[in-house]
Design a protein that fits this description.
The structure is a single chain. The protein is α/β, with parallel strands linked by helices and 404 residues long. The chain has two domains: 129 residues, Rossmann fold; 213 residues, Rossmann fold. Helices cover 44% and strands 18% of the residues. The longest helix has 17 residues. It binds pyridoxal-5'-phosphate. The site of pyridoxal-5'-phosphate has 18 residues, from helix 11 and helix 15.
Length: 404
């Protein structure tokens, strides 16, 4: 039991216009601006009123399985040459990752706004499954847009979404992957905004989404901070999280932002190395740009075109990054590093072998970041790693890579 979790937690109001220094904002077509404005106002109203946070706390506690445990992993720590290592166990959340925190929050918001239909985009299908789950629980119609190539690669997740009652639309345009799914979902949303709600999967996109998603994911750090104090009497020296779009990381960082002594480290997908097209390490080689309605750091080529990305892990494979991370990077409050595919795979194997915990390949990037830091930090340091999800979804892929 973790009696440290205090319910209900509060949802903070949004900052004006969602600016994080020079990053963020809502750089969208005119048709979308009033729809986003309505969303921001509805959220602010409900956040002040308190009912949304109370219902969300109840769902998180009685349906999703919060609080998730904080687990010390001494055998793993010893292998890394680290002092103490703790894992925040988002892998134990219902559906196997942190994504459900956000899906439940936004689905509740949708229902309060009188919307009857949620739409979402998905790449590998993890956000689609979380959205379909929240929609089933809350009695909302659900449509998930997925690139046709992604859908073919992720048959099992497509079937899971259908079992949950969602309609899955396979997008035939473009490269038939995540970016095309986002474009289609946004088009649909603009045309059907009266009864639909766009349930966005990470701390990215135009205002208010990066802030909304952070508010729904901050429960991770509210819990872990209290759990660290309770279990060790102190805060961690270093907190590490993987950064795809940035939702688990911003949720894991939030409650520590004013704890200057806690070093915050985000780990990006280093893929096969830093050649163009081979990675998703935005802070290593990206520069300021605009993507999906936000000003942020983007992987661009010399003609300012968005570069293709690669990561062994679908959740890390995105050319932009949440604008609050761009800001935390610019101000130096958080550091960003990258881990290669090979480093992530090594930690995937090492954690399950030494501790019986199978991490998602995304989360294995955070572990790889911790493995790099451990020798620098020495034996007195305490490292907290946000284990964003479980690796069951990745077992077939890892088996295939070993066979090939
Ligand atoms: C989707 C996903 C990620 C990456 O998304 P963020 O928004 O960066 O958190 C990380 N870990 C897991 C397990 C995921 O499913």
């Amino acid at each position: 039991m973790n009696p440290s979790f205090t319910t209900p937690y509060t949802l903070d109001p949004l900052q004006e216009k969602g600016r994080f220094g020079p990053f963020g904002g809502a750089l969208v077509p005119p048709a979308l601006a009033p729809v986003l404005q309505e969303l921001a106002e509805a959220y602010d109203h409900l956040a002040q009123e308190g009912a949304l946070a109370e219902e969300l706390s109840h769902l998180l506690g009685h349906y999703a399985g919060r609080p998730t445990p904080l687990t010390e992993v001494p055998r793993y720590a010893e292998a890394l040459g680290a002092g103490r290592v703790f894992l925040k166990r988002e892998d134990l959340l219902h559906t196997g990752a942190h994504k459900l925190n956000n899906a439940l929050g936004q689905a509740l918001l949708a229902r309060h706004m009188g919307k009857t239909h949620v739409v979402a985009e998905t790449g590998a299908g993890q956000h689609g499954v979380a959205t379909a789950t929240a929609a089933a629980r809350l009695g909302l119609r659900c449509t998930v847009f997925m690139g046709a190539v992604d859908a073919a690669r992720q048959r099992l997740n497509v079937f899971r979404m259908k079992l949950l009652g969602a309609e899955v639309i396979e997008v035939q345009g473009g490269l038939q992957t995540l970016k095309d799914a986002v474009d289609e979902a946004l088009n649909y949303y603009v045309e059907h905004a009266r009864d639909t709600f766009y349930l966005l999967g990470s701390a990215v996109g135009p205002h208010p989404y990066p802030s909304l998603v952070r508010e729904f994911q901050k429960v991770i750090s509210l819990e872990s901070r209290a759990q660290m104090l309770q279990q060790t009497g102190a805060l961690p020296d270093v907190l590490v999280a993987c950064v795809g779009g940035g939702s688990n990381a911003i949720g894991a960082f939030h409650a520590y932002l004013n704890d200057e002594a806690v070093c915050l480290v985000g780990v990006e997908g280093g893929g096969r190395g830093l050649e163009p097209g081979q990675h998703a390490a935005r802070f290593a080689t990206g520069r300021p740009g605009v993507l999906h309605g936000m000003a942020t750091v983007v992987l661009l080529d010399e003609n300012d075109q968005v570069q293709p990305t690669h990561s062994v892990s679908a959740g890390m494979d995105y050319p932009g990054v949440g604008p609050q991370h761009a800001y935390l990077h610019a101000t130096g409050r958080a550091q960003y590093r990258f881990a290669t595919d090979a480093e992530a795979l090594r930690e995937f194997h090492r954690l399950v072998r030494l501790e019986g915990i199978l991490p998602a390949l995304e989360s294995a990037h955070a572990l790889a970041g911790a493995a790099r830091l451990a020798p620098e930090l020495g034996a007195k340091a305490t490292i907290l790693v946000n284990l964003s999800g479980r690796g069951d979804k990745d077992v077939a892929q890892v088996a295939e890579m070993q066979a090939g």
